[in-house]
Amino acid sequence: MSSTVNAEVSIVIPTYNESENIKGILHLIKEHLPINTAVEAIVVDDNSPDGTGKIAEDYFESLKEKTRYTVSVINRKTREGLSSAILNGIQQAKGKIIIVMDSDFSHPPQLIPKLVDVLKQSKTDIVVASRYLNGGSIQGWSLKRKMISKVATVIAKQGLGIKESDPMSGFFAFNKDIIKGINFDAIGYKFLLEMIVKARGVSIKEIPYTFLDRQKGKSKLGPKTILEFTHAVWNLYRYGKKEQRNEKRTSVRFVSKAARFFSVGASGLLVNYLMSMLFTTSFNMWYLHATILGIIVSISSNFVLNKYWTFEDREFTPKRTIIQYGKFAGFSSIGALVQLGLVYYLVDEISISYPIALVSAVATAAFSNFILNKKWTFKEKVWS
Ligand code: GDD
Ligand code: MN
């Protein structure tokens, strides 16, 4: 059931067993439409056993005026989850502006005009209704539920480098155009999170609101949702990494690899030190033997890290790996000699103070090592 009106705003409302809420929320939305705007509500129902979809259809039938506000129902055959329901709703939406919200009164329809306003006025691409912004809050949740939400938010923000205060919000508005070409996984509950990660470079605003826990029906969030969340974040994390590898600017790629190479080098110093200590104290080894072993171990760990992480070479066939290891160890020794020679030259020949000489020598050796290994060990172009 749909209508011919060209809606400007489409409100996507996923439902599963919301027979006690759906009619009321559709009605409340109608009472708070943005002025002079045609709005369509799209209920995406996963064949709720309690007949939610039918109730929504009947509600629309009962309306006298069916132009400025229309309701359509997407009846899906099986339960495929919240994110996928949202995606389905968006695909069917006629409006340029999409709003996503829950059907259980947790998201106040009173906020809809403001979401649309901010989206239009400030030329923003996404407007998020946030519980965690100053002025926002959550009413009626148990401490446990609050903690789960907070922890999930921190993980998403830290793990995926997101700046918004409430990337897990289920209440948001956006310009439909920005998701053109995006491939959504649509796993679990986190549609907004996925959109923020994948629609790179869009502008996002947040406005605070008070989330009210539902009065009727049950939350569908359970242990499965938490597993799905982990899965979704992991996918998005890997997606971000892949984007980095596909980085088109050579300068960014070069600097990023150099930075990784130097971090590995620094970690090697630590490994070297710890190993030498371990061998002398715990194994009672002669200190020169311990030092040599420390060097061997750290060169090896540096090699593996640089192969796998810095130069992203995941082929560990024996012949290839041994040849690379030989070259890497060779360049490391040359690097050490360069460093020694340079320190001697700087201090003795041109009287630079030892600390400065040392730092310059280490930097020069590290950089030339990076270039040599890039070109000869891992067979990349120097500038790539
Ligand atoms: N079609 C469909 N399919 N709808 C679903 C499904 C599903 O599998 N699961 C849930 N829904 C609908 C519900 O009927 C409701 O309208 C909305 O999605 C939110 O579901 P709730 O079960 O009420 O979620 P919640 O209140 O626990 O979680 C809220 O807070 C989360 C952040 O902490 C929601 O706003 C989430 O979107 C939000 O991420
Ligand atoms: Mn809810």
TrEMBL record:
Subcellular location: Membrane
EC number: 2.4.-.-
CDD domains: DPM1_like (cd06442)
Domain of life of the native organism: Archaea
Keyword Glycosyltransferase recorded: yes
Any one GO MF annotation of this record: dolichyl-phosphate beta-D-mannosyltransferase activity
GO cellular component, one term: membrane
A Pfam family recorded for this sequence: Glycos_transf_2
Keyword annotations from UniProtKB, A to Z: Glycosyltransferase, Membrane, Transferase, Transmembrane, Transmembrane helix
InterPro entries named among the record's database cross-references: DPM1-like, Glyco_trans_2-like, GtrA_DPMS_TM, Nucleotide-diphossugar_trans
Domain GtrA/DPMS transmembrane: 260-378
Bilayer topology annotation: Multi-pass membrane protein
All copies of domain Glycosyltransferase 2-like, residue ranges: 10-180
Presence of keyword Aminoacyl-tRNA synthetase: no
Chain ranges passing through the membrane: 258-279, 285-305, 325-346, 352-372
Group of enzyme by EC: transferase
Biological process annotations from GO: dolichol-linked oligosaccharide biosynthetic process; GPI anchor biosynthetic process; polysaccharide biosynthetic process; protein O-linked glycosylation via mannose
PANTHER family, alphabetized: DOLICHOL-PHOSPHATE MANNOSYLTRANSFERASE SUBUNIT 1
Entry's family note: Belongs to the glycosyltransferase 2 family.
Protein name (Swiss-Prot/TrEMBL): Glycosyltransferase, group 2 family protein
Source species: Candidatus Nitrosarchaeum limnium BG20
